[in-house]
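If you are new to this repository, start here. Below is one unmodified record pulled from the training split, so you can see the exact layout before writing a loader.
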Amino acid sequence: MVIRITAIAVAITIGVSTAGAQQNVDANVLKNAGTPQDALQGDWLSYGRSLGETRYSPLNQINTSNVSRLGLAWTYAVGAGGGNQEATPLVWNNTIYGITNWSVVFAVDARTGKELWRWDPEVNQSAVRPKVCCGIVNRGLAIYNGMIFAPIIDGRLEALDAATGKVIWESRVAYPQEWFSITMAPRVANGKVLIGVSGGDHPIRGFFDAYDAATGRRAWRFYTVPGNPANPYENEAMRKAGKTWGGDFYKMGGGGSVWDGMAYDPETDLIFVGTGNAEPWVQKFRGAKDMDNLYTCSILAVKVSTGELKWHYQAVPNDNWDYDTVQQMILADLTIDGRPRKVLMQASKNGIFYVLDRVTGQFISGQAYTQVNWTHGFDESGRPMINKEAFYDKEPVTIFPTAGGGHNWSPMSFNPSTGLVYVPTSYASFTYAAGDTVIPAPYGHTGLAPSFLTERPNSMPFMGPEPLGKERGVLEAWDPVNQKLVWRTPGGGGIGGGTVTTAGNLVFQVINDGRLLAYSADKGEKLFEIQTGRTGMGPPITYQVDGKQYVALMGGIGRSVMVAEPNDAKVDHPPLLFVFELDGKTPMPSPAAPPPPFGVPPPAELHK
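And here is the target side for that same chain:
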């Protein structure tokens, strides 16, 4: 369903609002972002800054010689929370665009933090909250031709006028009543807006959509798993996938949600999409054992103009460990074995750093970047050789990495000068066990228990680096050509925060405990650290306005006390948008109270 709102009036508004302003963000501007032809080098125009998701900025005013002088320029109160901040702000036309956990979109002056407009989709929080998996979060926005595209957690996709915040069109992607939500940032490719659905650990059939950017009409839908085999297959890809499932799998959805991880190559018109785990987790509940379950835990290359699958790589056939393959993908041109290769790189949740040929899908290399014992390597085709001992039932089995992943949603970044990828990494295990029956909607997994083990608990062989002492979370600088660790430093982990790297030989990292840090990109020397006083930190960006470079991020959980209705909240220490500059003198805000210990029930007011 598409709701078109005052199309003619809004089109005129866009023309007026962008006249005389900074260059419009069209397909050519997006294509050139991150290249030598980048016309808006000081801006941040998409989730990963460039279509290839490198999170590399050519700005160098802030560099290794002066980053220690960073101080707070200003803050902006984002509004009520609900979960960790995971959104990446965008910057265009001297404006920062952001989105809250509950999908409220805002625009502020990038120099001062003055609010320009704010738009609230008025999500029915009490109805939606129980349906969402996994967390009340939102990862960001997209911008194109004077419009801001906003994902709404209840399943809507909105196009807003970038100058005014007025709604241009609205499309219904999915419904929370069917256990779907939207938490990922949209991507713009070939005049279309790409968006996927969350819903892991619920009985859903995963998919992602392409919508016409101008009208909001759906161009195509790609399902990531087959449906009821009694019905016609939607395409040849689904026919092929149907052969890899068995029994009545479709009655429990199948999984394959698309909740993060997209990158676009305009040369081939391919959108690369990561897919989630199979559902339910344990294979005996999916209708048949020892089947691959395409296209879960896979990287898909789909033609944007047609919605046709061109190639796929399945990282974890027959997933039993919640090893989503939706982590960020970076596109780059590397010289490997003496020849130039157009590659796709991913530090997957399963603990393997992958390098694939992005044109053909050929497996080039894979190496464990953290401790891994679910597999002991790859065959000649790149298929993982899974340790039989990793499959579990009622008897507990401890597996590395954790179900939270060696690397999860927190963005990594790639610096073309150093040739290194900076990966927030976790060294941890997870102990799995299965019950006798599956608990539907959401699925329950009896006997699951997280643990952090420094001693190897069983006979399964391990791959990957040894832990850095007893550090659970580290930042790793990874060489993708030689598939080796170059440097690492304590702090962070696979969930929370993320990184950005710059031409100033810097890597900025945000850690969930509230810290912003800066390291030299080549050697990993810590050059800067500041405590923001907020937890639940979002990814950092850097931008430049009026010749001055800034660093920005969002942070804070925003603990709320409900007054009468769930949407009526008094926010204690709300989440903030932090903006830093050289020699910034603004005092840091008072710190928020730490969150209650895990397992402690919320205040009584929350139950009213």
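Two things worth knowing about this chain: Residues 42 and 156 are 31 Å apart (CA to CA). The longest helix spans residues 7-18.
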